[in-house]
Design goal:
The complex is a heterodimer of chains A (about 575) and B (about 120). Chain A is of the alpha/beta class. Chain A is built from 16 helices and 15 strands. Classes of the chains: A alpha/beta (about 575), B mainly alpha (about 120).
């Protein structure tokens, strides 16, 4: 009973804190109630707990604001209650009792009034912004049944450690996981707080580990029906570390049968390598680098580096790593699909794929996670993709309209993985009062250059002369970097945050065979002012701060400029 | 600038650093050690304890230690914390600051007693 009461009281803490430490706080309570029995000790325990709540809850909310800008974003930035306490101990006992009781009642009331929901304004839970184009949505769910047992193999051990860290949402836990199990950084993007938050973590649906060092798993995103199939290969038995990792979304409507993975022999491997090389040579944006990558792939094959790999996903991950070791091009990727894909006549999406994309965008609100007005009338817009304007332009228009009267605007691109350059131009158009040249895109194979201009002025738009800020992180990628780089070169926005990831190429998925495809970067950006791009170097912010502090810093910059 | 939760160092955080000086402890262990070392005057509640731990972890003054699986994995999985070298340095600096204060207090005849 008393544990239940305390568990209830714990709900007064911000959700971020609860998720990380709630269980431990409860454990501490259990320990103390076990050790401190009797009337006096029991009373003292409860007085301690109430005093602790009175001090720690306001303290947590007071610091919840920086957490808003951190990767594990604390959502509601409009109405978070904040109280100031001067000390966190040495308050007189009588004040403690009185303060504890009053604060508990008051905060309890506030929590009820707030609904204590964690739904921020404008936020729609959605699927992750997959960087590859083949986002698959399964139409069936697998929740409700107990999680499957993870085999007690080295691969199973690492898989469990990853899921624990990833699902905790705790950046520290994910860092600790990477340090212990992934020192060679084979899967950094899969252990990032941003990805964890976008997916809400993964429910494990099934796992098989027929060989001790290799496990196949099937997961479902907690926040959406999207399912993924993955494989993990490890080295070492004492403290196993990740040797390769791969995960791909499951196409809609497919039912997974265990053991359906393709088993590769040397001839099949050769076909995939040849297919990858043919695509690189024909389309890759730098022919000399394409040749170097082809040489590297063949050299690895000749050395027998790939021989042991009979698993499709691991093999795809390995080829990706071999190519990236030469080109450092993060757009480049060999993907493996356990389901047979059909050959298609044209490169464009099929009507079904387009329909799926529309549904996907609808569910994720076109990746527009937050739209709101911060204190001091600063507009704030957080979106995690630059989606296709044909689908998402109305969302952009509605969002920008809602920010019509702000004095400054902050674009939060810290979790933005890029997208369509046309959408970059659509959003930039609001920041100019005349048609402005943003960017050029050079297609190597066609030897053509496409110019991108804003469509300014936009009728009734009031943002053209308002100060603009762009928040960046080391994970800001591709189209989001173009947005930042364009505005920086035009001196139209102040960039606040970290140097971005460094990907300036446009990528297209090309089929190799019924199971393998390669995302080939075929074009690159050329900025009309600098005549350069940001591939490999990233975009330098004007004000360099940790991504977690970027929002607060930009707010202060905007505020001081207003005065 | 971000808000600094640990500057100045709150007494609770300092006590936690001290409690970890000679042993790695889990949350309840820290709470008991702090109660011991303060003669029962400071009993850290879960909220204060884990807020402080959170701040100390963020600033890398302490770190989480991987503990071996217990008999019932998942049931009693406890995080154990260890003082980092930065944390040790910080605790020493804070102790020296307090020692300086103590010397001043003595010089002003506010306190009598032994050398520290």
């Amino acid at each position: 009973m008393s544990e239940w009461i305390y568990a209830w009281l714990l709900r007064l803490f911000p959700s971020v804190f609860r998720e990380t430490y709630g269980e431990e706080a409860l454990q501490l309570f259990r320990d103390r109630s076990r050790d401190e029995k009797g009337l006096f000790l029991g009373l003292r325990l409860w007085l301690d707990l109430l005093a602790d709540l009175a001090v720690a809850v306001p303290r947590q909310y007071r610091y919840a604001k920086p957490a808003l800008s951190s990767p594990c974003a604390q959502p509601d930035f409009g109405g978070t209650p904040g109280f100031h306490v001067l000390e966190n101990d040495s308050i007189r006992p009588t004040s403690l009792v009185l303060g504890g009781v009053l604060a508990t009642i008051a905060l309890g009331g506030l929590a009820v009034l707030n609904g204590h929901s964690s739904t921020p304004m404008g936020e729609v839970s959605g699927p992750p912004s997959q960087r590859s184009a083949n986002v698959g949505l399964a139409a069936f769910g697998g929740a409700g049944s107990p999680p499957p047992a993870i085999p007690d193999t080295p691969a199973g051990k690492v898989l469990r450690a990853w899921l624990d860290a990833f699902n905790s949402g705790d950046p520290t836990a994910m860092q600790a996981y990477s340090k212990t199990f992934d020192p060679a950084e084979k899967m950094p993007e899969y252990a990032s707080p941003g990805f964890s938050r976008r997916t809400g973590g993964f429910d494990l649906l099934s796992v098989t580990s027929r060989e001790p060092m290799l496990a196949h798993f099937h997961v479902k995103e907690k926040k959406s029906p999207t399912e993924g199939l993955g494989s993990i290969l490890v080295n070492g038995t004492q403290t196993p570390t990740v040797a390769a990792f791969n995960m791909d979304p499951v196409p809609a409507g497919r039912v997974i049968k265990p053991g359906e993975e393709v088993t590769l022999d040397a001839a099949a491997q050769r076909r995939v390598i040849d297919g990858a090389i043919a695509n690189l040579k024909e389309y890759y944006v730098y022919p000399d680098v394409a040749q170097q990558m082809a040489d590297a792939l063949l050299a690895h094959e000749k050395n027998g580096d790939d021989n042991a790999e009979t698993d499709g996903g691991i093999f795809a991950g390995m080829l990706t790593a071999q190519m990236r070791a030469v080109s450092h091009d993060r757009h480049l990727r060999v993907t493996y699909n356990p389901f047979k894909t059909q050959e298609r006549a044209s490169g464009g999406p099929t009507p079904e794929e387009m329909e799926r994309y529309r549904e996907d965008m609808k569910r994720s609100n076109c990746s527009f996670e937050k739209v709101g007005i911060l204190p001091h009338n600063i507009g704030y817009l957080k979106f995690n993709e630059f989606p296709d304007p044909a689908v998402c332009k109305p969302t952009v228009e509605a969002s920008m309209k809602s920010l019509g009267n702000v004095d400054a605007i902050i674009f939060d691109l810290r979790d933005n993985g890029g997208g369509d350059p046309h959408m970059v131009a659509v959003i930039c158009s609001y920041l100019f009062d005349r048609r402005t040249h943003l960017n050029d895109i050079y297609n190597r194979r066609e030897n053509t250059t496409q110019e991108f201009w804003t469509s300014s002025p936009i009728p009734r738009n009031t943002l053209a002369h308002k100060p603009a800020y762009v928040l960046t992180s080391a994970g800001t990628f591709s189209g989001a970097e173009e947005f930042s780089y364009d505005l920086k070169n035009l001196k139209r926005a102040t960039l606040v945050g970290e140097t971005t990831a460094g990907g300036a190429h446009l990528v297209e998925n090309r089929r190799i065979d019924e199971h393998f495809a390669i995302g080939v970067p075929f074009a690159r950006a050329i900025n009309p002012i600098s005549r350069k791009d940001w591939e490999g170097t990233g975009v330098e912010p004007d004000t360099k701060v940790n991504a977690a502090d970027a929002l607060e810093t930009a707010e202060k910059l905007a505020e001081s400029k207003r005065r | 600038m971000p808000k600094r939760k640990l500057d100045p160092l709150p007494p609770a955080a300092f006590q936690i650093l001290l409690s970890l000086a000679d042993a790695d402890l889990h949350g309840y262990g820290i709470m008991r050690q702090v109660a011991d070392q303060t003669g029962g005057r400071m009993r850290l509640g879960p909220g204060t304890l884990y807020s402080s731990i959170q701040s100390l972890l963020e600033e890398k003054f302490i770190e989480e230690v991987e503990v071996g699986e217990g008999k019932n994995p998942g049931q009693e999985r406890r995080r154990v914390y260890r003082l980092s070298s930065a944390g040790r340095k910080l605790a020493r600096a804070e102790a020296e600051r307090l020692a300086d204060l103590l010397r001043v207090a003595r010089a002003k005849k506010l306190l009598r007693g032994d050398y520290v």
